[in-house]
Amino acid sequence: MANVTVGEEVTRLPEEQSRQSQEKHSPNQADSFWMKSFPAQDQTIYNPLQVSVCALPVLPRKRDNVRQHITEVKLDEVVDICFSETDTISLLDKPNTVISEDADDAEAIKKGNIHYAELCKNRMGNDKYVVRSMQTFNGAPKDKQIQCDKIAMVEEGSTATVWDIYDSFCRQNETTESEEEKYSESTLNTSKIQDKRQEKSNSTICTGSTISSLLEMENYENSLNVGPDPQWIMESESFQHSLLLMMRTIMANIFQPKLAAYRQLPVLEDPDSTVKPGTKEQSEEGETSSLTPALECLWAFTCEVTRGCNITSMCWNKKDPNLLAVGYGDLMNEKEGLICCWSLKNPVWPECVFYCHSCVTCVDFSANNPSQLAVGMLDGTVALYNIQCRDKRTCLASSSECSIKHLHPVWQVKWTRQEMRLSGEERVEALVSVSADGRIKKWLLSANHLDCIDLMELKRTENIKPKAQKKKRKKKAAGVLAMMMPTLCIDFHPTDYSIYLTGTRDGLIHKCSFSNSQHSLDTYQKHFSQVNHVEWSPFSPDAFLSCSSDWTIQLWRQSQRTPVLSFTSTQKAVYSASWSPNHSTVFAAINGRQMEIWDLNICILNPAIVQHAAPGVKMTALLFATGSDCILVGDSDGQVTVYKPKNLSMGHGKQVDSLDDIIHSAVSRDQKV
To answer: Do 507 and 551 contact (CB within 8 A), yes or no?
Structure first.
């Protein structure tokens, strides 16, 4: 496009016009012209990884210096100028690598350019950045040669006389007729061997190979007659261990849905199951439709050995939560007792079975020595059993040789932790027992027997002095009839192990201490019949629960001598009441005919769930599962049934606060009344 001035005549020289026409059709010369137009410092080499930031140069425009002689006549002339569009010619097209200094990202691009320049500068001549090919050298292969002695072939022969053949033939016929009848197949083999020998007896010279073949056939014949003893295989330790593992594997496959529900895990679907998925979903919908709390029976620990035996007590192993110890015995008759250790890995058959000379009344596992099981019996014996031994050494120690042992039934044994050791890591355990003779004893293991010391003697005092004769019989006023108070249960404080509670047959609950063996610290009196069970709350150390034969369950506060809450549902003696280890406001109780689950968050007047016993069977023992919400119930038929609560909304907040709020509200309500 040319610059044109109106009213001015423009003339160009022929040389100049030819030069312009050449520049127009020569792109190389145009490129050189544009390159020469830029100053020397602004010429940069194009780098695809680098963007330059600089000020745009101002290109000077070249003017045409053409001298023209203009006269007045020319100025008056009319000049017609016609503008036309020329063809657009692109001489050079490359991406822009320059931005303005006023751009927003100019500073970031400058820093990136500086970093790239330093990187390129450091890379040059640096040994860490060397572009070259590498080759891994493999070691030269080694020649290995194996050399052995030359096998020499030697021909050997031996001579067998007719007498040698005859003696060997007679030696084979010395078997008795009974053995021939028992091993008929082997006699057939011997007959074949004899036929072969008779065929070879014609020749007096035999090679060594024939004799060796005959000896091999004789050894094969003897191996058929003599076999391994099946009884020895059955009694071997390796075979018993293999059977145990195989049985556990089979039982885990059979009871997988039940065990998964026990552990609150998802149930794996059986690929070989014939049940259609639709029917299964419909059954699940029918179950979930009912929102009433209920119990689901998972399985029962029972076998031929325990069938018909009354269950007296149960306890979990404190180190292995899969191991359960159950005591069996008839409390009305002096018969032999039974102890079975059940495992969740095999609900069909117990891991070990121990027979006792008397009825088993209570059991408890040690925390420091998980293999030691303390057992109390009806005849007053306290024994320690090692569940790892399966022979006569199972009973580690017994109190039968102790001169001051219990003379009446031992109703409860309890392991408790006492003073700290020097290391401070673990407490020393002590075994404590309570009996109907009113004595609370602490047992010490020495050699092969148990020795004991008295922690407390609970006596019942009854004044026989009449009120009308106070002045006349001063001496008799001081005389009281001291009788031992039968003790039925014991439980130790969850934080202060020196404090414990004992329930007596007179309906009293005594709070005692290890440091005071003469008097009790406090006495709680509300029950008017024997206290069958007492237990501290695992969440609130100030609350404990008690049950009695007076049909009631009492919730106590340690600082008050009157119960905070009282629970009654039926007119039956309550045998046991136990707190849930997972929920502070939930406890369960049994009264022989039924099991009750109470949730204080739902209601304090009626139990949330009631499970009735089978006809003709009594519920005798109760235990919560560890690591699960399931409940174990033992009955008079020798079955330990595992129940799982369903549709029971148990709180999962702060457990201590839930129980304390209920106790405070009950106390404040009583104070207002």
So the answer is: no
Mean pLDDT of all residues in 516-544 = 90
Q: What DSSP letter does each residue of 167-217 carry, written as one string?
A: HHHHHHTTS-HHHHHHTHHHHHHHHHHHHHHHHHTT-SEEEHHHHHHHHHH
Say if residue 48's pLDDT is above 50. Answer: no
**DSSP for 20-45?**
HHHHHT-HHHHHHHHHHHS-STT---
CB 3 within 8 A of CB 12: no
Exposed / middle / buried, residue 585 (Cβ in 10 Å: 0-12, 13-18, 19+): buried
| Phi and psi torsions of 364, nearest 5° | -160, 135
- 106 C-beta neighbours (distance < 10 Å), count: 13
List strand residue ranges (DSSP E) for 436-526, in order: 439-446, 449-457, 459-463, 480-484, 487-492, 499-504, 508-513, 522-525
- Residue 389 φ/ψ, nearest 5 degrees: -95, 145
| CB of 385 closer than 8 Å to CB of 339 | yes
| Extended beta strands in 9-156, E state | 52-53, 98-99
CA distance 450 to 396: 9
DSSP code of residue 152:
-
CA–CA distance, 1 with 91 (Å, rounded to integer): 15
Contact yes or no for 185/224 (Cβ under 8 A):
yes
What's the distance, Cα to Cα, between the start and end of the chain in Å? 112
| pLDDT tens string 98-154 | 788 888 888 888 888 888 888 877 766 665 656 666 677 777 777 667 667 777 788
Closest among 255, 291, 295, 251 to 642, alpha carbons compared: 295
- The count of other CB atoms within 10 Å of the CB of residue 375 is 26
> Where do the H-state alpha helices sit in 466-532?
474-478
Structure tokens at 14: 């022929």
Residue type, 569: S
In the DSSP assignment, the letter for residue 74 is H
Output the pLDDT for position 385: 92
Question: pLDDT > 70: what percent of the chain?
Answer: 69
Average pLDDT over residues 380-406: 84
118-143 burial code (b ≥16 CB/10 A, e <16): eeeeeeeeeeeeeeeeeeeeeeeeee
How far is residue 443 CA from its own chain's centroid? 34
Instruction: Give one DSSP letter per residue of 650-668, joined into a string.
Output: ---S-HHHHHHHHHHHHHH
Rounded Cα distance, 581 and 36, in Å: 93
Match 């001051």 to its residue by tokens.
404
Cα 591 to Cα 547: distance, rounded to the nearest angstrom? 10
Distance CA 460, CA 516 (A): 18
Q: Coil, strand or helix: which one is 275?
A: coil
Strands 98-99, 52-53: pairing is: parallel
How many C-alpha atoms does 250 have within 13 Å on its Cβ side? Answer: 8
Residue 289 sits at φ, ψ, to 5 deg, of -65, -35
Q: Are 575 and 556 in contact (CB under 8 A)?
A: no
**Average pLDDT for the chain:** 76
Contact indicator for 659, 540 with CB cutoff of 8 Å: yes
d(C-alpha 365, C-alpha 318), whole Å: 7
Burial of 68 (0-12, 13-18, 19+ CB in 10 A): exposed
> What does R_g of the chain's alpha carbons equal in angstroms?
52
Q: Which residue has the tokens 């020397």?
A: 40
Contacts of 339 (CB under 8 A, 6+ apart): 325, 326, 327, 328, 353, 354, 355, 356, 360, 363, 373, 375, 385
- Going by C-alpha positions, the residue among 341, 340, 339 that lies closest to residue 323 is 341
Tell me the range of 21-30, 57-66, 94-103, 274-283 where mean pLDDT is highest: 94-103
